Amino acid sequence: MSTEYRPHSWPREGIVLGVFAVVVFAMPWWLTWIGGYEALATKIVIWAIFALGFDILLGFTGYLSFGHAAFFGTSGYVAGLMFLHYSESIIPALLACLVVSIVLALVLGFLTLRRTGIYFAILTLAFAQMLHAAALSIFQEWTGGDNGLTMSAQPNLFGLPMDGLNVFYLAAVLVVIGFAMARQIRRSPLGLMLRSIKENQMRLEYTGVNVMAYKMTAYLISAIYAGTAGWLMVVYEPYVATKFLHWSTSGEVVIMSVIGGVNTLIGPMIGAAFMMYFENVVQSEIGELWKLVLGAIFVLIVIFLPGGFVDGYNRVRKVLGQKVPSRRHNVPDSPESMRKLRERGRTAEAGRTD
Amino acid sequence: MSVNDVFLQLVTGLQLGAIYALIALGLTLIFGTLGVVNFAHGALYVIAIYAAVVIGGQIGFWAAVILVPLLLFVVGILMERGIIQYFYDRPHTDQILVTFGLALVIEEGAKAIFGANNIPYPIPDWGTGQMLFYGTGATIPGVPRFEEMPQVWMPFIEGMLFYPSWRIILIAVSFLAIGGLFALLQFTRFGLVVRAGMRDSEMLRFLGINITARFAIVFGLGALIAGIAGVFGGPITQVTPDVGMHLLVPSFLVVVIGGMGSLPGALLSAMLLGMALSFSAEYSAVQQIVIYLVAVVVLLVRPRGLMGKKGVLE
């Protein structure tokens, strides 16, 4: 699959993040050229944060969660309640959202992470639906039931009102930080461990690794991203809908990740942009049919292009005769790359990985 | 709680459990034989209720009773041969993704054709009324309204009780279907082969049995049961495109609580959840989450489910 191993270099990292930041920050402008609008850019970036965190779980460890709406929605409600009852400043709300997301992830992770594959998908789906049902029944007093929560005042950051492009810049800064962090995690020993969980969890256990702790770490990280996205959503639009907790929200982030390209970090964000564009711009062209068309696109991608858009792009490049760099980020995997490593005098290290 | 209340709640629990059991049996049958978790199983139910409404409205209810399960059987086989069979060698998550995508397409397709709102289900006249249960010593008033009702004598009931006929019919049909399925698997050669295939399909292939064709039929059977559920459950669950997903989540829990791939386990846990829902009806806030609470308790005490076997999915 891969042709060449590309070692990590800080200048290249800087260029990647720089280009990414420019593309993200310029989004309100270039989006209007293709039929979008400014506020759509904010939505795209918020969902990109959600999908990015989701990729750390699904892409790295291979654990397919169908219940990430639990973190997104709970965070939304916590943020809404903080704005309503405590302070309109967004910082205390963010702290509360992070704490709640972490606690919730510990509880749900304890219940679901013990099982793999199918069991995990079903259990996460079920417990997220439990929270949805609970928000509509036993927590109705706080969540407003079917009506959701509506905030009257605009949230602010140290007096700066959080509306329009201000929210966008906040979200854009966070997505760039989130992307940089995710890339660091990917090439760190932690990232290597998470990917070996995907490869062969049992073998990892036999070597004495506390797999549960690593799975929980990935789950926690993705929950923190999802919680941040949920908080941002309420800052962006001072309204908490019950839909934030519904399975369809979990489904959306799954769809984004898969059509964009799982385990690529950039893919799920492209998927988020694609889906939001579809939901808001294409919808005005074809009406309610957009969901049907999107579902069909999703099915076709799962069947014919399991690597999503990023894989499609790489295939096109391969056809054009270009070299596609390795997708394995800290594992030398081809004989040529091993030879190159030896030439650099790192024989001992390369020998150990054998 | 009086005897009458307990009786009513038992019947309600049976009725709720019956629908879950029909969906969950199809799910667990497909899972046990093919190893595929079918996220589109709720969508099959959606196809069934809309087909039942159309056929029932155009031709007649009995035509729907016969044609809809047959249609679903064909749809199931087409789905397995057309898409699912290419996913046996791919990771479980891909199977979940493709069936989830199919579920979306079917749900949105139904929405595009029939709209998102509930449409009326043409129940035949004989199924619309109430059923009368009476105990010893109860005097039934001699007015036509009471005399026309189907009457059942139950010695322990105090006085009279009414229950919608259609729900009783649903319970009866469900248990007939479930009994039929178990008989098919237990007493026929086909069932023997399928059960052997659930244990070790590779060995069966070595013995020269064409398990592929039989597994396609099993997928069709799972869809057929969803079809039966749709024809008789449609009036109770509503006829909307999103009812499939509403049913799917509890049905998944039924399968997980019962133990993945265990048919008796699915039946047992469907009834357990039905009863839990029915008996918590007085506390409506708790009722919404009671099935999840049961699931949490069962999974903490018995992580493999009530009747799950060691080695399945581990």
Explain the overall architecture:
- The complex is a heterodimer of chains A (354) and B (314).
- Chain A has 354 residues and is mainly α.
- In chain A, 72% of the residues lie in helices and 2% in strands.
- Chain A contains 16 helices and four strands.
- The longest helix of chain A has 26 residues, at 211-236.
- Chain A is globular, with a radius of gyration of 21 Å.
- The two termini of chain A are 19 Å apart.
- Chain B has a domain at 21-125 and 162-241.
- In chain B, strands 2-1-3 form a three-stranded mixed beta sheet.
- Chain B is globular.
- The chains are: A mainly alpha (354), B mainly alpha (314).
- The A-B interface holds A 58, 62, 64, 66, 111, 114-119, 121-123, 125-127, 129-130, 133-134, 136-138, 140, 247, 251, 254-255, 258, 288-289, 291-292, 294-296, 298-299, 302-303, 306 and B 31, 37, 83, 86, 90-94, 96-98, 100-102, 104-105, 108-109, 111-112, 245, 249, 252-253, 255-256, 260, 284-289, 292, 295-296, 299-300, 303, 313.
Mind sketching the topology for me?
The complex is a heterodimer of chains A (354) and B (314).
Chain A: H1 10-25, H2 27-33, H3 38-61, H4 69-85, H5 90-112, H6 117-136, H7 140-143, E1 149-150, E2 156-157, E3 160-161, H8 165-187, H9 189-206, H10 211-236, E4 239-240, H11 247-260, H12 266-286, H13 290-304, H14 308-319, H15 335-343, H16 347-352
Antiparallel strand pairs in A: 1-4, 2-3
Helix pairs in contact in A: 1-8, 2-3, 3-8, 3-9, 3-10, 3-11, 3-12, 4-5, 4-10, 5-10, 8-9, 8-10, 9-10, 11-12
Chain B: H1 3-34, H2 41-58, H3 61-82, H4 92-114, E1 130-134, H5 144-147, E2 151-153, E3 160-164, H6 165-187, H7 189-206, H8 211-237, H9 243-258, H10 263-279, H11 284-301
Parallel strand pairs in B: 1-2
Antiparallel strand pairs in B: 1-3
Helix pairs in contact in B: 1-6, 1-8, 1-9, 1-10, 2-3, 2-4, 2-8, 2-9, 3-8, 6-7, 6-8, 7-8, 9-10, 9-11, 10-11
